Amino acid sequence: MIKSKLEQVGIFNDNLNKVKPSPIHSFDEKVSDIPNILKLTIGEPDFSVPQHIKDAALAAISADDSHYSVSAGKKTLRQAASDFLNDRYGLDYDPAEEIITTVGATEGLYTLLAAILNPDDKILIPTPAYPVYAEMTRINGGHPVFIDVSEDKFVLTPDHLREIIATEDHIKAIIITNPSNPTGVTYTAEQLKDLADVVRETNILIISDEIYSELSYDAPHVSMASILPEQTIVINGVSKSHAMTGYRIGILAGPAALMKKINMVHGFVIMTPSNPAMAAATEAFKSAESKDDTLWMKEQYKKRRDYLVEKMTKLGFEMATPSGAFYMFAKIPVDLNQNDVEFAYDLVDRQQLAVVPGSGFGPGGAGYVRISYAASLDMLETAMNRLESYCEEKRTV
Ligand code: PLP
């Protein structure tokens, strides 16, 4: 191990003083080496990438598609992404000026925040939320302002938003996650319209993270950009919808003038996305076959959701029924008499079952656990048997 004095002499950006590692990954790492552990911790599809998508990547490699592209991504991919957003959600984006291809949704979010944040700026984050939002805001010198929405069935209400806007200054943007990680809750068109009515009166940007848009179970997904396109930037991609997390292709879509500046930053950060990954994502966005792949995956997730809702409810857990993504955010029954961190570690110790403590998702998350059902029904059955044994044991003590 190399020892360096530099950490002690303040080599790092001061913004990092408040940044914490992802609670999901920290917990996952701590429990990963436990023998016989069954993990429902990580949010990534358990399906293989469909063969025709793999073939598209392989064809790009064979054709020696090995040079720099352009920072916004290949035209063919931007066209496919634009058609996809139009076909699925009725959005109308010019592929040349209003869409950027990013290295996963993650880099899109980072670059966007880097492009808009000044030192006093605040980002509104309805919580429980994906922890990355707050940390990326801090890395870029901004301040996250958490809005606890746990008392409102995990959706942000217009009244709550109005109240925050009236009390906070320097609000740059709000991040809406629809469908939500960690709760699986989705917004209806009505709810989005009501929020848009509040935001329209302001200069606030809506960052609409719709990475789970294709996984909406009970109603068609409604994009915030179909309601307030002039103040919205949509984040989407192929990671969740096409089981392509490792390919690292996402998209940002928004008004041309904003996208131009964001693309400038994006070019400095990544130069260009990877060509084989772009070829695969183009296939994912545009082929009819790929629409069927996603529908099939959605059906599997839905079966798993239904199974989990029934089992968890029987065991005394309460939850907002997840209507999208592949997470359930369940309230730990009072008679188990534990906070979420104690519960999660005790469950690992006694039954080798790992679920993520809810407090890591910000205000409103304490007392809950997040369960990822991106796992086979067999695994979920084993998990529920273990949870049942755990609950029986605790309840008979
Ligand atoms: N946004 C949300 C809400 C997520 O849950 C995730 C991954 O878990 C991401 C973005 C990251 O997506 P990507 O893998 O495309 O970077």
Task: Walk me through the structure.
By secondary structure, this protein is an alpha/beta fold. It has helices spanning 23-32, 51-62, 75-89, 104-116, 132-139, 158-167, 189-200, 256-270, 275-286, 288-314, 340-351, 377-396, and strands at 38-39, 99-102, 122-127, 143-148, 171-177, 205-209, 232-237, 250-253, 318-319, 327-331, 353-354, 356-357, 368-372. The chain folds into 2 domains: 14-48 and 291-392, Aspartate Aminotransferase, domain 1 (Alpha-Beta Complex); 65-287, 3-Layer(aba) Sandwich (Aspartate Aminotransferase, domain 2). Helix 3 (75-89) packs parallel to helix 9. The longest helix has 27 residues, at 288-314. It binds pyridoxal-5'-phosphate. Pyridoxal-5'-phosphate (PLP) binds next to helix 4.
Put the structure in a nutshell:
The chain has 397 residues and is of the alpha/beta class. The chain is 42% helix and 14% strand.
Record keyword descriptors for this entry.
Aspartate Aminotransferase, domain 2; 13 strands; globular; 4-stranded antiparallel sheet; 397 residues; 12 helices; alpha/beta; 7-stranded mixed sheet; binds pyridoxal-5'-phosphate; Aspartate Aminotransferase, domain 1
Largest sheet: 7 strands, mixed
The structural domain count equals 2
Q: Outline, from the CA principal axes?
A: globular
Q: Percent range for helical residues?
A: 40-55%
List the helices and strands in order. Answer: HEHHEHEHEHEHEEEHHHEEHEEEH
Low-confidence blocks of residues: none
Number of strands: 13
Heteromolecules bound: pyridoxal-5'-phosphate
CATH architecture of the largest domain: 3-Layer(aba) Sandwich
For the biggest β-sheet, the strand order reads: 2-8-7-6-5-3-4
CATH class of the largest domain: Alpha Beta
Derived structural class: alpha/beta
- Total number of helices: 12
CATH superfamily caption of the largest domain: Type I PLP-dependent aspartate aminotransferase-like (Major domain)
Strand coverage percent: 5-15%
Integer average pLDDT: 97
Terminal CA distance reads 48 Å
